[in-house]
Amino acid sequence: MAYIHIMAYEGLKPMPNVSIHPDGYVVDQHGDVVKRAICPIPGDSTHRIFDGLTPGMVYSFESGLRVEMCTTQQRLNFMEALAEFAGYKPVSEGGLLLQRPYTQGAHAKCAGPFWELIALTTNRVIVGPVVSNKLYRDLANGKIRAKAFDANLDFQGGFYQQYMCWMQAFQMASNNGLVNIY
Questions:
Q1: pTM over 0.85
Q2: What's residue 75's pLDDT?
Q3: Fewest CB atoms less than 10 Å from the CB: which of 81, 147, 170, 176?
Q4: Of 101, 136, 100, 94, which Cα lies nearest the Cα of 117?
Q5: Which residues share a beta bridge with 66?
């Protein structure tokens, strides 16, 4: 069974005098391997979700946290529940609700609480520090309500448990970091 993993980093610092070896690891100008370094975004990426990161730049980081989250299906179910929790209106067509109607409602609105997280349509993405900070604030502001929402929800895998994992990751990344969802 495939799991979604989250790797959160904080305290990123640009490392302009290093390069990426063809085998994928970071080396300094002498060819020595550099530990605690990442190159999160290819040089041609400009999507808003990367805000705060320079495409093609290698970064050192102060600390990182890896969380094994859930299966892809559980993530989709969580995002649907999160969209309902956030108050997005369910979308219907011809009087019938679409599959994942609250998620569809979030997509239609294109803004709001947790929107950037709900709108992720891939299991492989980097979220930069600007969007991470916004998502952390959204999650922190809803923490108490999320616990009550969880108590009234038949959600396998625990809505509140997953909510808190996402909050922990985005809290770390809001300290000049990033979240790598893979």
A1: yes
A2: 86
A3: 147
A4: 136
A5: 7
Confidence of residue 130 (pLDDT cuts 50, 70, 90): very high
pLDDT tens-place string over residues 103-126: 999 989 989 999 999 988 677 889
Beta strands in 42-151 (DSSP E): 59-60, 63-71, 92-93, 96-97, 125-127
Using CA atoms, how far residue 12 sits from 15, 67, 115, in Å, is 9, 19, 25
Alpha-carbon distance 11 to 64, whole Å?
A: 9
Q: How many whole angstroms separate alpha carbon 161 and alpha carbon 2? A: 19
Extended beta strands in 36-142, E state:
37-38, 59-60, 63-71, 92-93, 96-97, 125-127
User: How many Cα neighbours within 13 Å face the side chain of 71?
Assistant: 7
How many other CB atoms are there within 10 angstroms of residue 181's CB atom?
A: 20
**Residue 155 has what pLDDT?**
65
Structure tokens at 138: 């959204």
Query: Is residue 153 scored above 80 in pLDDT?
Result: no
